[in-house]
Amino acid sequence: MEVEALRRRRTASAERGVGERLTASWNLQGRVALVTGAAKRIGRAIALDLAGRGMGVVVHYGGSADEARELVREIEAAGGRAWAAQADLADRQAAAELAGTARELAGRLDVLVNNASMFPKSTVLDFEPEELFANVDVNALAPLLLSRALARQQGEAAIVNLLDTRIVSYDREHAAYHLSKRMLHTITRMLALELAPRIRVNAVAPGVILPPPGKDEAYLEELRHTNPLNSIGDPADIARAAAYLLEAPFVTGQVVYVDGGRHMLGGAYA
Ligand SMILES: NC(=O)c1ccc[n+]([C@@H]2O[C@H](COP(=O)([O-])OP(=O)(O)OC[C@H]3O[C@@H](n4cnc5c(N)ncnc54)[C@H](OP(=O)(O)O)[C@@H]3O)[C@@H](O)[C@H]2O)c1
């Protein structure tokens, strides 16, 4: 796999010409992004950030139809272009078809941000096989199916996957989630090689940003001390990192940890 990807990359750089360098940013203006799970929280921040950079945004949602439509209205009111698209990413066929739907709605598709995710509790000694498969379906397989669908079209594109700083440590209370995010990390690296040089594939690994639904700020405060910066991040930090990776023409297969330095500590949560 790696040798073939390297060969394709060398051929492409030879075609570029001797001395030519990838200096300019990949221009997001006028392109279209599909952001999964974009109706709320971090996905919403990413969608707004990309719309602010001149991108059309397809706001994917699962159950949050009202919030998705409200976000589309907000982007349009600010002079941008946006469309809402529903799909249950636990349904493999629906996941595979979503990229095509986005392209039909917006007329083109250049960027995929795999943000949607489930975060249920489970432990490695107790989870049922179905719990593992459910996490893998939504958190890893759906991003892969969407990426494949994007790759089947012609032209350049860029993908950003949302991981979690926990991939380099261990979250005992979310074991199936942990495994699915580790899988998505590996998928990021595999696709970065397979799809080069036409499509760049990178990831952002957030740390303490927002409490899970049902928890409040006290949950985050308890975790503040778990990172060297003794801090809590903001969804806008994640959006900026995603935008950097989308625009960076010489970066692929990379993970940007936006986690106050937590990834350097390793160890287990809980
Ligand atoms: N929050 C944090 O501090 C944090 C920390 C580390 C990593 N992350 C990662 O960053 C990303 C965003 O985090 P977040 O906390 O904003 O995510 P979230 O609120 O837990 O989930 C984002 C969206 O995913 C969608 N989703 C879940 N299952 C789905 C399904 N079966 N089909 C379709 N959509 C589905 C939901 O859309 P609907 O509401 O429309 O159903 C949900 O609003 C995630 O990948 C997460 O793992 C977040």
How would you explain this protein's 3D organization?
The protein is α/β, with parallel strands linked by helices and 270 residues long. The protein has a single domain (28-264), classed as Rossmann fold (3-Layer(aba) Sandwich). 44% of the residues lie in helices and 15% in strands. It has 8 helices and 9 strands. It has helices at 2-16, 41-52, 65-77, 92-106, 129-151, 175-195, 217-224, 235-247; strands at 32-35, 56-61, 82-86, 111-114, 157-162, 170-171, 199-206, 255-258, 268-269. Strands 3-2-1-4-5-7-8 form a 7-stranded parallel β-sheet, sandwiched between helices. α3 links the parallel β2 (56-61) and β3 (82-86). The mean pLDDT is 94.
List the helices and strands and how they pair.
Blueprint: H1 2-16, E1 32-35, H2 41-52, E2 56-61, H3 65-77, E3 82-86, H4 92-106, E4 111-114, H5 129-151, E5 157-162, E6 170-171, H6 175-195, E7 199-206, H7 217-224, H8 235-247, E8 255-258, E9 268-269
Helix pairs in contact: 2-8, 4-5, 5-6
Instruction: Using the 3D structure, state the CATH architecture.
Output: 3-Layer(aba) Sandwich
Low-confidence blocks of residues = none
Order of strands, widest sheet = 3-2-1-4-5-7-8
**CATH top level label:** Alpha Beta
Content of β-strand: 15-25%
Mean pLDDT comes to: 94
Q: Could you give the distance between the termini?
A: 38 Å
The total count of strands amounts to 9
What is the CATH fold-level name? Rossmann fold
